[in-house]
Amino acid sequence: MSDFTQVTVTKAANIYFNGQVTSRTLTFADGRRKTLGIMQPGAFEFGTQAAELMEILSGELDVQLPGEDGWRRIQGGESFNVPANSTFSVRVLSLTDYCCSFLP
After folding, report:
1. What residues have CB less than 8 Å from 82, skipping those under 6 apart?
2. Which InterPro entries match (predicted)?
3. pTM here?
4. Is 34:26 a contact under the CB 8 Å cutoff?
């Protein structure tokens, strides 16, 4: 899906790591939430309470997920899942556009 309809957009940006990662929150009528964001090249560690689906729309990064010893290369058009109540690390190799869906 490349377009979202009937959503509420939170105007204030989510800004992390001195502006190197930013996103905007979308809330759907049924309560589902997603964020649309950009990550600049760099290394970042994120914590999450909810399970997430991270769709990489463009760009390239390496991700290290909980329980995995190594890094996995992810490119535009690919995605990965993050379990609830966990921490994961990314090494962003090029400007990366992403969509994060918070899963029930």
Report:
1. 48, 51, 52, 53, 54, 65, 66, 88
2. Ppnp, RmlC-like_jellyroll, RmlC_Cupin_sf
3. 0.94
4. yes
